[in-house]
Amino acid sequence: MQTFDVVVIGGGPGGMTAGMMLKQAGKSVAIIQENHDSFGGVCLNRGCMPTKSMLKAAKVYRDAQNSEKYGLDLSVNPVDLTRLRAVADADLNMLRHMVQGKLTDARIAVFRGKGSFRSEHEIEICQADGSSEQIRGEKIIIATGSVPAELPCAPFDGHSILSSDQILKNTELPHKLLIIGGGAIGCEFATLYNTFGSRVTLVEAMDSLLPREDREAGKTLQSTFEQQGIAVKTGAAIKSISVEAGTVHVHYDGSSATEEFDKVLVGIGRTANIAGLNLDAAGVATEQGAVKVNEMMQTTVPHIYALGDVIGGMTLAHAAEKEGYLLAQNLIQGSRHPLDHRAVPRVVFCHPEVAAVGTHEARAGIKAFTMPQAPNGRAVVDKVAPAFVKLFIEEDTSQIAGAIIIGEGATEMIHEMAVAVENRLTLEQIGKAVHAHPTHSKNVLLAVQHFN
After folding, report:
1. Is 181 one of the annotated binding-site residues?
2. How far, CA to CA in Å, does 403 sit from each of 18, 237, 254, 390, 435?
3. Is 309 among the annotated ligand-binding positions?
4. What is the pLDDT of residue 55?
5. Is residue 17 situated within a structural domain?
6. Which residues are catalytic?
7. Rg of the chain's alpha carbons, rounded to an integer?
8. Which parts of the sequence bind NAD(+) (predicted)?
9. 298 falls within a domain
């Protein structure tokens, strides 16, 4: 049986980052990756990258449709999802090649198959043909990611009722699409399919979109979506869903009416991918369906760690990547640096974009300020709505505790606020920085100045 200093189960952004850093530090490292997937995890294969490729296409299509306001006369043809998918696949293949090259250069031992615990140090790797092998790790990192959450009343069938994984393979533009879940997944796909011509209904059980964020921002996004033609139903719960002759029939709680759709996307979030890990054999505890860890990403077994989506929480690729970096750093240096979750940006690549960091609500000691949406020079020439900017400030110190931005380039603009939250910068300190003109980021400066 081969023995390694570190065995990583899962080749996503978190597992790969930790594995490569530990290998560079002189550790012997093995990464186990399931056969059906390439390295890069959910983000590269079924999440961040394919959706962003298609959302870029949606932006180009939307700009072409609205070319008249820029003094241009462009015509567009109906969208061919097969062609879009082919372009996205080409993008992904290039990225997969790059990721594989990094692993090859790092000379990490790679094992293909399904990894599961035999004991607290031994991992069994099972192949699709039934064969298996065992390896041993002095330390083990669980980084197996997440899978789409399913509604009990609407199990995925891959054709009419789809997960976010499955809809990425869709090549038929539905006439009517229902999206269940008003979080990041639902909002991004609502933008995508509405732009391409589907009649989209977006349903969220809570009272505003992006229910984990500021309510005012959620309502602002809802209003914008509705202006774009997306039907938004908040505070609405699904009672039952049935499929008859290829048509999906949807019943809502508190209503006798039935709505019909061609397809339904269930985008209510993701759950930790722990099925088949046989955690009990290692004595690793779980909590609320995810691997239980302390702030140093240590499980209930001291030499076994877990990071990324599999521990629940933020389920963001960049959070997992940072956790992988910090875990490797701590193991190499013997340090104890936890991830400051306050400073992790939360982004949604819908239209308009949404980005937030830090606290998302006013409370004792923290006051909030919403910048009036006054056009600046860049918004005027780009012909887009001015950015919505809301700041959350510690009353005693004027330190920036959080922010949320809605608008063009919000996912880039948020990093200034992330630096402020991470380093506990004040309004005055941000206000001293010169912001280039004309930029959308000047709205952040204006918000800071108005707050003062």
Report:
1. yes
2. 30, 29, 36, 6, 17
3. yes
4. 97
5. yes
6. 437
7. 23
8. 181-188, 204, 269
9. yes
